[in-house]
Every structure is written in C-alpha cells, then in structure tokens.
Fold each of these.
Amino acid sequence: MRCSQKTGHRPFSTDTPSDTRFTREKTQHLSTSRSRAARGMNVIQKPRPGREEAGPGRLAPRGGQLRPTSLRRGRTAQLAATSPRPEMPLFSVPKEVAVGTAMLGVAFATGLLAGKRYPSLLFGTSKPHKSIIGKSSPLWQYILDHSLREHPILKKLRLLTAEYPWGKMMVSCDQAQLMANLIKLIKAKKVIEVGVLTGYNALSMALALPDNGRVIACDINEDYAKIGKPLWKEAGVDHKIDLRIKPATQTLDELLAGGEAETFDFAFIDADKESYNEYYEKCLRLIKKGGIIAIDNVLRCGMVLKPRKDDLATQSIHHLNEKLVRDARVNISMIPMGDGVTLVFKL
Ligand SMILES: C[S@@+](CC[C@H](N)C(=O)[O-])C[C@H]1O[C@@H](n2cnc3c(N)ncnc32)[C@H](O)[C@@H]1O
C-alpha cells in the first residue's frame, strides 16, 4: 500500500492537491507498467470519471461489535449459575461461549488480513494518507491557504496530474515549495531530480532557478513527462529541464564519468525506493559542499516503525534512515512533511 488518498476524494474542491505517494502502489503501478510496456501497451491511462480506485481509503471501518471481554465473562458466569443443565447438551461449552469464541476468531482473522493488506492500520496511522497531516484535514487546507504561493502553470500541472490514478505519486505541493525556496536560498544553478513523473517538482525547481540554471531530470518512463512537457514550455522554462530517459543510476554515473562531481547544488530523490541508497551515494558525490539532497518518503506512512520483511521498499528506506543519522559527511533534518522528507546538507 502506498499512503494514498482515493482518487476523486476532493474535500477542498478541485484545488486540493493530489495526495502524495505511497510506494507500494507505486511499485505495483511500476511493475504493472513495466509488464504492460513489455507487451507494447500504453501504460498511461486516464481515470474513468467517477470511478474510484480500490484502495485503503475504501476499507470499511473496523469494529466487529464485540462487547468487552469482562462483560462477556460476567454473562457466562451468570448463565452457568442460573441455567438448568440440559439433558443432552448440543455444545460441550455454553452456546454464548462458543458464539463469542467464534466471533473472536473471525475478528482476529479479519484483523490479520486487514493488517496484511493495510499495514498502516496496524502501525498507528489509521488514516491511509500519505501525508503526516491527512489531506482531508482542515489543518492541511489551512496550511495551503496560509503558505502556498503556486505559479499558475504549476497549479495547472498539479491539477492535471491529479486527474490520473497514478497522480498520487506526485510530490506534495507544500514540499515542492520548500525545495524551491531552498534552491533560491542557496542560489542553486544545477539541480538533479531522480524520478520526475509529469514534472511538477522539476517545473517548480526550474521556475526557482536563474535563466541559465539546469535541472537534470531522470526517469525511465517518458509517457508521464509527455503530459507535463507542454506546461514546462508554457511556463517558459522548458530550456532549463534536461530530461534523461533511462535508469537514474545510469544517468548519475554518466554525470560522474563526465566530470560533473561536486558541481550540483541540489538533488531530489523520489524514484524506486529500493535504490535510494545508491541514489544517495551518487548524488552526494555530484553535489558541492554546502549543497542539499532532499530524500522523499522517509516515513513511508509510518511503516518505517515496523518494516515488514517482505516490504523491500520500506526496509530500504529504513536502512538509509539509520545510516543517515550517523553519517558524518552530512548534517540532516528529517521533516514530517508530505510522507516525510530528509534534508541532507553536505559538509
Ligand atoms: C514518485 S514519482 C516522481 C514524482 C515527481 N518527483 C514529482 O515531482 O511529482 C516516481 C518516478 O520515478 C520513476 N522511476 C522509477 N524507477 C526509476 C528508475 N530506476 N530510474 C529513473 N526513474 C525511475 C517513475 O517512472 C516515476 O515517474
């Protein structure tokens, strides 16, 4: 599961940003996309209007109405004391106990299944949102109303991306704005994005860069970027975005081999989670001292608290988090924004 929001769940009108990503869905989407791509099929599909995705947001509320155990015990004891013993009992235990036990069994099995399918329910984030503050929370709307200054074409791209079922992979708009502000603060000229999608954040960074600035935008799937490209152009910054369609490790290696180590100011890592450590190490070599790397999804909707053995994406992020807190090459701040973003400052 990705901490995600139902597509079409728009409590704040069409301006509500798409929920950001939760990578199990991403991974599922990617693997589906890859197999579809391998079969020569178009992997970009528009949502059917009005049709909601099956997803965690649709999980019925838990609550098999079991009475508290103490009450059940009291009732059982009362029954035992007052009921005459039947001549030929159908059950070797009182019926209430048998029914109660069966209900407990059902509740336990349901809990296990729900926990497997929707781990966030077990890990304390009862709302299946990617964001720390749920996107249906009035506080989220308040944050946007009182901080978001979004370029009109950036907003257009966000709303366009949000129309697609995979649009929830898009970075959170408040987080994109923070990164753009950092880019301006450090007067960045060269930046990298690992994982572009339609380029919401690539566009946000391009808008923050000077006219001779450059975004090296790495993705394996050009179909997403094709949706965003006309808007990069409309915003007049397409000349700053250098899209490289191939595995990001390959692009980063090419930059290193081309003598561009220590020449970048900023990097944003937001692609396949299993490769995050590799992306981090390569980006660390590519950015200058004083440069910044932003690493997305570091909280994985709370699942980093107890990564499942079979959830390699969360395991990978958790290991990187453990490494970063001790990494003497950098200073860091882990920020509970979006799905958690760690800012890494190269020393
Ligand atoms: C979460 S989305 C990126 C969102 C984007 N940063 C934004 O501004 O909204 C992840 C992207 O990573 C890309 N991706 C996945 N594996 C990749 C790889 N090995 N190399 C490059 N890109 C990859 C996917 O195609 C997808 O577009």
Amino acid sequence: MLSVMNLRGWLIVELGPRDGNVVLDPETIVAWFWSLATMPIEEAASIVNPAFHQAAAAPTDPPVHLRPLPDEVIQLLFEVGAPPRLAAHLRAVHDVARQLIEGFVTTWPQLSFDADAVSYGAATHDIGKALYPNELTSPGDQHESAGYSLLLQKGVPERRARFARTHAEWDEEGATTEDQLVALADKIWKGRREEDLEQLLVQRIVTATGYEPWKAFIHLDELLNRIAAQAEGRLQFQARFAVSTR
Ligand SMILES: [Fe+2]
C-alpha cells in the first residue's frame, strides 16, 4: 500500500533531498511519475518484445551491419503488432535502399528523386503483412492494398505511403523512379537481379545524364554487385526471427 511516507521516501531517492514538503507539490509528483511512465519507443519495445527490438533496432552481429529502422517506423510497426520477421525484413530492405540512394546520388546527381520517400517506402513497403502474416511465408498480394490503407489511416501522406501498394508494380505505366528504387531494394537485398527493372532505371539515368546506356549500366551493375555481396548475411539475419508476433 502506498503511504505518504513511503511515497516521500521514493521521491527523495529519485530526486534527492529537498527543502519543504515535496509530497504535497503536485507538479513534482506528476513530473516524477511522468519520468517513470515515458521512455523512448525503442526502449519500450526492448522490454515488451525483445525479439521485435532485436529485429528492428538492436546492433547486428558482424559481418552484417544494418542500420536500425527509423524511430517513427519502429513506433508504427509496434502499434500494428508487426512480427519480428517482418521488422527484420523491413530493416534489411531499408538498409539496402539507403545504400542505393547513396550510390545514385553520388554517381548520377543529375537524376532527381525523393530520397526521403524511397527510404520511408523501403522501411514500410510490406507493413500490410502485419495484417496478413501468412504472406510472410507464402505468396500473396492482399498485404499490398491493406498496407497502403493502413498507412493512410495512420496519417502517412500518399507521397510516403504509396510504396505499400506499388512495390510489386514497378513495370506499370505510372511507376516512378521512387517506386522502382524501392522495388529494386526489395530484390537486391537478397541478391536477386531483375534485368527488366534494372533496364528501366538505366533508361531514367540515361535521360537525366545523357550517358550511353552501357556506361550507366556498368556503374549500376557495380553498385548492385557490391550490395548483393552481403545478401547471405541479410538472409541469415532475417531467418533468425519468428513469423509469429512473439
Ligand atoms: Fe519485401
């Protein structure tokens, strides 16, 4: 039972000795409880669901080095009860998308695209699999429109949400550079080469830079080979995590 005396004792331990009667100061008490009740989402995730935390944000074992997912994405995935396997997959594809962005910006600065949207899109493209977890292990496309609706419901703008529905539609007429970069990240993370998709991006590079197609392809091929060289480690990382929520 919480008595005034032991509450006062806790406050002194937490805040240090104070003059006056801090127990009767509601602002001090509220601030103290608030400090105990709020913590970064990553810390909360590590306590409530350690496997999810390992998949989404904890340092990875060498030789694989994967950036943590962005905090806002961790929060979203946590809210929708994403299984650790899904968080691990999104982390791997997000990391690869960031490598693609860096490579494209450095090699072909004339090709403009929305790097923030590509990064966010890679980190969330399969979020609909939180609602259709069977599609983590079996083929299926229900997660695509479901994920897109889910992101819009959460207030994510179209510019960032579209990838949940477009990541498998990279060859459709309205596909953008951003759609194709997210789709490419979703292939090359596991070392898969998709010639038609790569050619569509070569065309965009050629249009933006005026380079010969063969020259654009050589540089793209180098970048993709470098990323694909780490595919085995990423696959092993993802496979460590369960497809169920816990
Ligand atoms: Fe994916």
